[in-house]
Structure formats: C-alpha cells, structure tokens
Amino acid sequence: MSDFLRDYLTVVWFGLAALVLGSLLLGLAALVRPVKPNASKLIAYESGVDPVGIGWSQSQIRYYVFALLFVIFDVEAVFIFPWAASIERYGTFGLVVMLAFIVLLLDGLLYAWKRGLLRWV
Amino acid sequence: MTGVLAIDPLLFGELKWMPLVIVALKVLVIFVVGLVGTMFMVWFERKVIAGMQNRIGPNKAGPFGILQTLADGVKLFFKEDLLPDRADRFVFRLAPFLAFVPAFLVWAVLPLGGDYRDGNRGLVEWFGHATRVQLADPPVGILLVLALSSIAVYGIMLAGWSSGSKYPLLGAVRATAQMVSYEAALGLSLAAVLLTSGSLSTVGIVGTQDSLSNWNVVATGVVPFVIFVIAATAELNRPPFDLVEAEQELVGGFNTEYSSLRFALFFLAEFMNTITMSGVIVTLFLGGPQPLAIGDWTADIPLVGNGLEGTIWFLLKLLLFLYIYVWFRATLPRLRYDQLMDLGWKVLIPISLGWFLLLAALRLGRDEDWNVWLVAGVSVAGLLVAAVVMFGAMKVSGRNRQQGAVY
User: Fold this and answer.
1) How many CB atoms lie within 10 A of CB B296?
2) How much is the ipTM here?
3) Among B12, B120, B259, B392, fewest CB within 10 Å belongs to which?
4) How many domains does chain A divide into?
5) Which pTM was predicted?
6) Residue A92's domain spans which residues?
7) Domain match, A29 and A82 both
8) Is B167 exposed, middle or buried (0-12, 13-18, 19+ CB in 10 A)?
9) Would you list the domain boundaries of chain B?
10) If you measure CA to CA, which chain A residue comes closest to B109?
11) Do both A63 and A98 map to the same domain?
12) Could you give the 3-state DSSP secondary structure of residue B4?
C-alpha cells in the first residue's frame, strides 16, 4: 500500500466522518422536533398563494448551451494542468502545440459567440 | 497485489498505531475547527455587516452576541421538518448531504499550518512523529478541490429540482449555469499558479512561495489572483453573484422548500465553503502558512514557536479574505443574470487564457535563454491584437443587438 493511496484513504475516511456527522445531526433532530404535517403545510411555497400548475412545469431555460461550452474548457483544463505543472519538460515544442490547441478551442468559443449563443435569448 | 486490492491500510504494510491515532486526532480537530469556524464566520459576517450599515448586530446571546449562531442552530433543531408532497423524496433527502460533505472535504487538503522556514517543508513534530498540519497531501490536492466544488453544484441543483416547486427550480437552473461558467475561469487562473509552482499538491504550492516576491499573487502578476477571487465568489454564490438565492427574485432560491436541520446543513455548507475557499485562495496565492518574508528579512511572531506560527499566519490571511467577502456583500449591488454570464464568458475566460499564455511564454523564455524583452514584446503584441479583435467582436455584436439582428 503506497503513501499515495493512503492519503486518499484519509480523505475518504474524512468524508465518511462528515456523512456520519450529518446523519447524526438529522437523526438527533428527528427525535426532538414536532411532526404534525397537514395538507396545507405540505403544498409547495409560492409566495402565499396556492401553487399554479405543477412544480416541474416547463419554462424556457436560457443558457443551456453553456453546459456544452463548459465541456470545451473542462477538457482544455485536463490538458493544460499537467502541461503547466511540468512546462520545462516539453520546451518550445510544447508551447507551440499548446498554443495551437488553445487557439482551436478559442475558435469554438468565438464561433459560439458569433452564433449569438452567449447572449440572453 | 496489495497495491491494487488493499483498500484498508490497517491490514497491510507496517502501519503503527501512533500514526493512526494522530490521523484520527487530526480528523477530530479539523471537524471541531470547521464547525466552530463556521459558527464564528456567521457571527463575524453579521457583526461586520451591521457595523458597515450603522447597526449593532447580534449582541444578546453571549459576549458580543458570539453565541447567536449556536442559538439559531438549537432553534432549528426544534423546528418541524417538512417534506413537500410534490417533492422527489429520495433526492430531496440526499441533496443536503451532497452540499455538506464536499464542503467539509476541502478542509482535508488545506495546509492549516506547519513550519515552512529554512526549507523545512511544513513538517512539525507531534508525539515524536514528523507530520504536517494538514489531513492529507494527495499529489493532485488542488484538483481535488476543483472536483469537490463541482460536486457541490449537484447538491444545489438537485435540491432545487427535487423540491417540486417553481422558485427552487429556477434557483437550481441559475446555479448550474453560473457555477459551470465560473468553474472554467477558476480553472484557467489556477493554471497560472501551476505554471509557477510546478506542482499540484497543496504542500508543493505553498513550498515555492517562500518570500513575498515568490507569493503567487506577485509571481503570476496579480491578474490570475483577481480573476480567481471573482470566480470563487461566483462559485460560492455570494453577493454580488448570489442570483441563486436572490431573495427579492426567488424567495430563498434552491432552499425555499427546506426547513429545520436540512436547511441548516445547506447553511453550514455555504458558510463553510466561504471559509475553505478563502483558505484555497490563501494557499494558492498568499503563501498559506508561510510567514511574511521580504528579501532576507522574515517577520517573526514573538513568543510563539515556529510550528505554531504557520497556523497563526494562515489564520491572519484567512481573516483578511473573510472580511473582504463580507465587504463585497455590504458594498456591491447584485449583477443582472446576463451581465453575470457576459462577465464570465466574455471577460474572465479570455483574459485568464491570454494571461496564462503570456506567463507560459515568459517562463519558457527564461528557461531557454531567449531574449526576455523580445518574448515579452511579441507576447504582449499578440495579446493586444487578440484583445482588439475581441473588443471589435463585442462592439459589432452590441450594435447588431440594438438593430435587432439575430447575432
């Protein structure tokens, strides 16, 4: 077992401890709080009036394209981070290749911009 | 064999009891510090913002009202926990954990102290064992922070969706688009830090910042720092980027339908994120537990050993950022949603990318003994051309918009 994995294991233990703490708090609260639900308490909150339609009603979701655009930059980060951390290893060649890569991706962003995807529609 | 299958190091290798006890102790201490720190932060924010608005703020519970958060927490314990009848029951219960656990986990990789003087890489002696004042130091620690902040989006998004109500749903949609957008800027400004540090581990990043001129805020030329702070504020959904829970527009946003302790978990997570994100900024840009050092001179806190001093420096820098976040909230008006998106995609991302390329070129130029001025000149010229093209594009698109064109 390497130290490498041992560090992650500590993180996992820590996460489990946080999970236990959260459940403990909720469990404790469940013991002491009152439970008296009635129909009007349980309807969705809509500023005091009865809710209209269903909660998951369809509405126009703006900016959904950003989820796709985000993938561009997330993938970019995957390649940029290792390169940035060890830049001296790849020298000029690395810089040129990276430049080409980034310009290509920026191209994607500019294209989206030109198509008007970045604005409030 | 053991490397692949062994999940529990207790069963393999020569792990002694004492290191395990130390790790358990660290977990306990960080838990206590995390919770108490969060309570303190809530009080601190209320008190400071009250001062800025000419009010007194909480002053009844305990000295200076410092126990106010505790009183609020106890109150929430005794509140009825409602589960709306239209809610998705499982996801509704799951979401608070998805927000709470990642908020806690970030603590694990933050260097909370340690002795970084004289090339001593953050090691201190505890019970005869050399250790770090930090729970874990995975080699990709800072990626872990990014990953956890992405998971926190799920907590907010699922909370809003599962409520089966309109305001939370709108809050969730806003949260998703906002956090996804600023995550890109966050990552790109982070790349500049990696460039100067050459390491993804938090200890490695702190280790290179051994004097003021080596602090990444100076070494990367302030711009990535500013972008990181702005993007981090947006990631935290704090004012002026708090559109996710804008009271005037969305009641409570994603947590409208939550009550009792489930709400408290969201609340805790939010404030804990503020603290940990400040900690991340301090670690990345301000040298974490490193003492203030200018040239050969190093600031020394009297009467305190070197081991403890790191923690004090870390806390001082942390407090600075907590104050700045409260200051933001008291000063800046909320952005409109399209302004928020424009800022992220049309300003922060291009600038951070351009700055990153400039830094990379300079760094490589230094390594390869190119003419520094030539490299700087060519890079800056390239960036200026790019900026002019961008501004032109913005202008054209603005004009087209006014004329009602499609783009």
Assistant:
1) 6
2) 0.83
3) B392
4) 2
5) 0.85
6) 56-121
7) no
8) buried
9) 2-370
10) A11
11) yes
12) helix
